[in-house]
Amino acid sequence: MRQVILDTETTGLSHATGDRIIEIGCVEMIGRKLTERTFHYYINPERDIDAGAYAVHGLSREFLSDKPIFANIVEELIEFVDGAEVVIHNAPFDLGFLDSEFALLKRPTFRGLASKVTDTLIDARQMFPGKRNSLDALCERFSISNQHRTLHGALLDAQLLAEVYVAMTRGQEDLSIDLIDYTVGTDASGQMKALPSSFKLIRANTEDCQLHETILAEIAKASKKDSVWSPLNVEVRSN
């Protein structure tokens, strides 16, 4: 699976009132691993930048004055993104600006290029309800270093988001749980078939079993009743 992790910086908060994209950064992942392919441009918005936005990203109109306009980088952006799953943090914001830029050029929507759009902010809110789920907060939660991030930058934020996304989605596939067929049944002799697994099975030896029984006896003595792991309780629970 090819994925493009994307971030933008803008002149302000609302494309509907004329704000424009001033930086776009993308990194490519294939098979959940970063490749060496990136897409990054500073863009001349041909307008002023809000003071609040400048405080976030530090990109001035003077700095951007000699950078390409969006129309000059759009073909390269399309080629980079086309057909990939696009991963964005707070996707409606970036997609709104990108669709607006495409509309100004009388092109179909940007989101139409993607095979799928994944919003990591929505996923984070489901995983961590009631908690802060900004990119900085997620980096801290997953122990991802962002000490070099003093200001927002599209490429740097895309790289950080890629690490956050992998951490958020790391789960059962690492243990091959989904590959196990739990309907294997029994063999011709009536014995249950072994479950397919690449894991090494280590059986307890006699000494291990004796130690186990000793611990169970100590638990029973302390609690004045049999533990749930005692052979009697196992037999009762299976009936």
Give the helix/strand layout.
Blueprint: E1 2-10, E2 21-30, E3 33-42, H1 51-57, H2 61-64, H3 74-81, E4 85-88, H4 91-104, E5 116-119, H5 120-127, H6 135-141, H7 154-169, H8 206-223, H9 231-238
Parallel strand pairs: 1-4, 4-5
Antiparallel strand pairs: 1-2, 2-3
Question: Can you walk me through this structure?
Answer:
The longest helix has 18 residues, at 206-223. Mean pLDDT is 86; it is low at 172-184 and 232-239. With 239 residues, the chain is of the alpha/beta class. It contains nine helices and five strands, in the order βββαααβαβααααα. Helix content is 38%, strand content 15%. Strand 2 and strand 3 form a beta hairpin. It has helices at 51-57, 61-64, 74-81, 91-104, 120-127, 135-141, 154-169, 206-223, 231-238, and strands spanning 2-10, 21-30, 33-42, 85-88, 116-119. The chain has a five-stranded mixed β-sheet. It is elongated and about 80 Å long.
Helix fraction by DSSP (H/I, runs of at least 4): 25-40%
Spatial ordering of strands, largest sheet: 3-2-1-4-5
Structural class: alpha/beta
The fraction of residues in strands falls at 15-25%
Essential attributes:
38% helix; alpha/beta; 239 residues; five-stranded mixed beta sheet
Tell me briefly what this model is:
This protein is 38% helix and 15% strand. The protein has helices at 51-57, 61-64, 74-81, 91-104, 120-127, 135-141, 154-169, 206-223, 231-238; strands spanning 2-10, 21-30, 33-42, 85-88, 116-119.
